[in-house]
Write a structure and sequence with these properties.
The strands form three sheets. This protein has a seven-stranded parallel sheet, sandwiched between helices. It has 13 helices and eleven strands. The longest helix has 21 residues, at 86-106. Helices cover 41% and strands 15% of the residues. It starts with 6 loop residues before the first strand and ends with a helix.
Length: 349
C-alpha cells in the first residue's frame, strides 16, 4: 500500500539553506509549503509557495489550517547585513518564531526543527563547544537567535522542538561574504588571512545539515544539537585547497592581527564594511562545535570536509559569476555581499 504523502512547512524556503532543505524534502517525496518574504524561484507539483511574513498571524493560521502539517522546519531569519532596521530583525527572528510555535499548538503540529547559529558565541573557548555551555552573543543577530531558542524552550509542552546550532553553511549557491573571497581567487588576487591563518573554523555542508533536519523530524522529544564538519583544518589550508582547484594565480597572504582588527572595528563604526563585531572577533580565532550528541542521538554523520564543500561553492560561483552579480530580489546568502572598503584591499592585492 502506498504511504500517504506527509505535508511539511518550511520557513525561509526561498533562501539559501531553506531552499536546499525544501528541494531535498521534495526529492524525498514530501509535500512542502514554503513561506518566505522573498518570492520562490522553484516550482514543483508538490510545492506550495507563499510570499508572506511569519509575523502575520492571520496568514500563519490560514496556512496551518489548510496545510495539515506533520512538521515545521523553521529556517527563516533576517541577517544583520541584510537589513538596517533592527526592529524588523528582532521581531522577525523572535516574534515570528513565537508565532510559529503558537500556530503549532493551535493546529496540533507536534514537531518543529529550528536552525540556530554558532553566532551565539564570539570568542575562542579553547575547546570544542558543547550544548551545555552558556552562550554569549555580541551582535543583534546572535542575540535574536538566542532569544528565539528561549521562546521555543518555553513552548515545548506538546511540541517537540529540535534546535540545531549551525556554523557557516556551505554548498553550491552559498554566496554572501563568500562571494568576496571567491572574486579575489578568480581574479588572481591575494587571499588575505588575519594573523598566520592557522586558526581552525568549522563549517557545515548544507546537504549534511538537511540530512540532520530530516532525521530530526521523527525524533521523539525536544533536544538541542551542535552540528559541523569533522577533521577541521586551518583556514589557510582551506583557501589553498580552493586556489589549487581553481587553478588561478591567487595566493594566501597574511595581514598583521592587531592592526587589522583595529581597522575592521573602525570600518564597521564608519559603516563602510560588511564585516561586523562577530567577524572581527572571530576572523583569527578557532571555533569548533562538539558534535558528539547529534552523532549519538540522531545517528548523524558529516560527509564533506571544509575543503570539499568550499571547492563546490567556488565552482558554482566561477561558472555563474556574471548572473550572480546581477541578482537583486534574492536572500542575502544567495547574492554577493557588498564589498565596501574591502574593494580597496582588492585593488592593492
Amino acid at each position: 500500500m502506498t504511504q500517504p504523502t506527509r505535508n511539511v512547512l518550511v520557513t525561509g524556503g526561498s533562501g539559501f539553506f531553506g531552499g536546499v532543505l525544501k528541494r531535498r524534502l521534495l526529492t524525498e517525496g514530501y509535500a512542502v509549503t514554503n513561506i518566505d518574504l522573498v518570492a520562490d524561484s522553484d516550482s514543483h507539483p508538490a510545492l506550495t509557495s507563499v510570499q508572506g511574513d511569519i509575523r502575520d498571524t492571520a496568514l500563519l493560521n490560514d496556512l496551518f489550517a489548510r496545510g495539515n502539517f506533520s512538521a515545521v522546519f523553521h529556517c527563516a531569519a533576517l541577517l544583520a547585513h541584510d537589513t538596517i532596521n533592527e526592529n524588523d530583525l528582532w521581531t522577525s527572528n523572535v516574534d515570528g518564531t513565537r508565532n510559529l510555535a503558537l500556530a503549532c499548538h493551535v493546529h496540533k503540529v507536534h514537531q518543529m526543527v529550528f536552525t540556530s547559529t554558532n553566532c551565539l558565541w564570539a570568542s575562542n573557548l579553547g575547546h570544542e563547544v558543547r550544548e551545555d555551555e552558556p552562550p554569549n552573543p555580541v551582535e543583534l543577530y546572535g542575540r535574536s537567535k538566542l532569544a528565539a531558542e528561549h521562546v521555543l524552550k518555553e513552548c515545548q509542552h506538546g511540541l517537540n522542538v529540535i534546535i540545531i546550532r549551525c556554523p557557516t553553511i556551505i554548498d553550491s549557491g552559498r554566496l554572501g561574504l563568500l562571494a568576496i573571497l571567491f572574486e579575489f581567487i578568480q581574479d588572481n588576487k591575494k587571499v588575505w588571512v588575519v594573523g598566520s591563518g592557522s586558526n581552525r573554523y568549522q563549517f557545515i555542508y548544507a546537504q549534511d545539515l538537511a540530512t540532520a533536519c530530516i532525521q530530526a523530524m521523527d525524533y521523539p522529544h525536544s533536544d538541542l544539537f551542535h552540528i559541523g564538519s569533522e577533521n577541521v583544518c586551518s583556514l589557510r589550508e582551506v583557501y589553498e585547497a580552493v586556489i589549487r582547484d581553481a587553478g588561478t594565480r591567487a595566493r594566501v597572504a597574511q595581514l598583521p592581527k592587531a592592526p587589522t582588527i583595529a581597522a575592521m572595528k573602525l570600518a564597521h563604526k564608519l559603516g563602510v564594511s560588511p564585516l561586523g563585531p562577530y567577524h572581527y572577533r572571530m576572523i583569527a580565532e578557532d571555533f569548533i562545535f562538539d558534535t558528539t550528541r547529534i552523532r549519538e542521538r540522531l545517528g548523524w554523520r558529516p560527509t564533506l570536509t571544509n575543503q570539499q564543500m568550499m571547492i563546490e561553492a567556488y565552482r558554482y560561483y566561477a561558472a555563474q559569476r556574471k548572473e550572480i552579480h546581477a541578482r537583486k530580489d534574492v536572500s542575502a546568502h544567495s547574492k554577493p555581499a557588498s564589498m565596501g572598503i574591502i574593494r580597496l584591499l582588492k585593488w592593492f592585492s
